[in-house]
Amino acid sequence: MKLAVVGATGLVGSEILEVLDEHNFAFDELLLVASERSVGKEITYKGKPYQVIGLKQAVSEKPDIAIFSAGGSTSLEWAPQFAAAGTIVIDNSSAWRMDPTKKLVVPEINAKDLRIDDRIIANPNCSTIQMVVALNLLHAHYRIKRIVVATYQSVTGTGKDAVDQMMAEREGREAQMVYPYKIDLNVLPHIDVFQANGYTKEEMKMILETKKIFGDESIAVTATTVRIPTIGGHSEAVNVEFHEDFDLEEVRSLLAKTPGVILQDDPATNTYPMPLTAHKKDAVFVGRVRRDESQPNTLNLWVVADNLRKGAATNAVQIASYLVEHSLV
Ligand code: 2RA
To answer: Could you tell me which InterPro entries the record lists for this protein (predicted)?
Structure first.
């Protein structure tokens, strides 16, 4: 098994290596790949130094699996070249997610749809992944009619420079302005670019990807995605209306046994999910479970996950593990 990590020097790339290590993902050879300006850099994995190589060399090495986190343009240009060389690409960018010929995979929900001829597999957007993981068994039991979600997204979702802008503002030093405004002591209702319909691209990702992952275009979704000055994870206030009514205790029981979910919900002890406690964890944490008393068949949830983990690196490594375990590579 020859594994490539493309974008190895970025926040998600570094997290992918951490997850590979923690999960003891087995491979014979590891290729760490980045842009030309990073070629030659040394990265240590399990105590062993690796030299970063460029994309052209990586393709020629014909890895079995390449996990990409290098942006959409790099993925559009290079994923097909890796695929043509026989590599299975698992891509974290949005480049392939809505392509009707590509699978958009959250292993707990639809990894079973993967086939031997899937050469480019799309990893969904982090804010989508944690929401659909949380709703998976509830959808199976009560059929989702409509989702209203507001997100509270960590600056780590933007990248290293955004974290640095936040810290620089906090420490009173100069730094590159990644956002249009100060982010510390502020919130920005603006993630990615605005669309003609007034939604941002991040909000449209949540809307469109949710339908594709559940395979149900009838699910109505509306989203407001917000950037907040924190690290550790994305948080989401999810209001979900079902076609069927539900029993709240059964909902809690279903959440407790939902694959990938940890239920953290006990108001009496101030127990609820937070980025502070989700940081560096692979699970999706759910709490504040309560009936929406303003309308029938509707539930409120609070969902938190480390966006660099289950929102990106962990989900991608879980897809890679599924491919190996099911002899699809
Ligand atoms: C963000 N979900 O949080 C987007 C991309 N990582 O910025």
So the answer is: Asp_semialdehyde_DH, Asp_semialdehyde_DH_beta, NAD(P)-bd_dom_sf, Semialdehyde_DH_NAD-bd, Semialdhyde_DH_dimer_dom
